[in-house]
Amino acid sequence: MVRQLAAGHYLVGTLHGVARLGVADRFDSTAQVADLAAASGADPGALRRALRLLASRGIFVLAGEEVGHTEASRLLREDHPASLRPLVLMFAQEVQWQAAAAVPECLTTGEAATPRRHEGGLWGYYAGRPDEARIFDAAMRSKAVAQVAGILASYDFSPYPRIVDIGGGQGHLLRAILAREPAARGVLFDQPAVIEAARAAGEPGRLAFESGDFFRSVPAGDLMILMEVIHDWDDAAAGRILRTVRAAAPADARLLVIETEVPEGNEPHWSKLLDLVMLAQFASLQRTREDYRRLLAANGFAVSGVVDTGADISIIEARPV
Fold it and tell me: pTM for the whole thing?
């Protein structure tokens, strides 16, 4: 196991390379390695070796010179409804490799690596690289597909006439909620540049757009949502956001903090890897359920329920106190 982990960046590089070549998109069921190499511009011998490594991890099946799909390899297809190809390409970006290589330094300092290399941190990096920013946006959209479906299947949004999605990006979740709940009205709140892009994607009559700074003020709603916002911040900054929300929240409002929780115990879980991504990129963290209880309690909220959506993300419902 230690040897596999020590050389794990070669496995990651192989996955990135095969995804960049679009190999998974070039056949539906089975194909010959030579044909895939010709179609993708790869060296046949090198491609076969890459596919052999990935097949040993359940990504593709390799039998002689014939390659077949698995459930995991199909996630690398662009036409898969829950495609992870954009996420794979995002993690292949220079800024991600730099952050991963800096984790040993982060363990000593407890500080993020990316802001030291790029002015403005991760967001500053993307601001100057629109092509890479588009890959990041596509990765967030693809990741949201399963998450949004799980959220809609797990939580009843019908009691709330006004729903505010704070830091809601392009509004994937809020648009889906409004499509499900015809009586509800929504407010999408984010930074001005984000809201400008979201507005360009369409403005249904029941969806309003507001821009601002969630450290200063946010719109009030019967239901207020923070989806994958808190994990970008340490406890001090997260507390400031929550206090801003608390100041705006009506007495009978509910807050949903939607995040990937870190489970107790030593079993593998995506959140434990994501936690180190957050350390290296932002000096922030993924939190346990108890961490969220404490954080909310310290900033004017009490947890009233937790729902596991089955999509590696949980809904933590809280009420103002």
Answer: 0.91
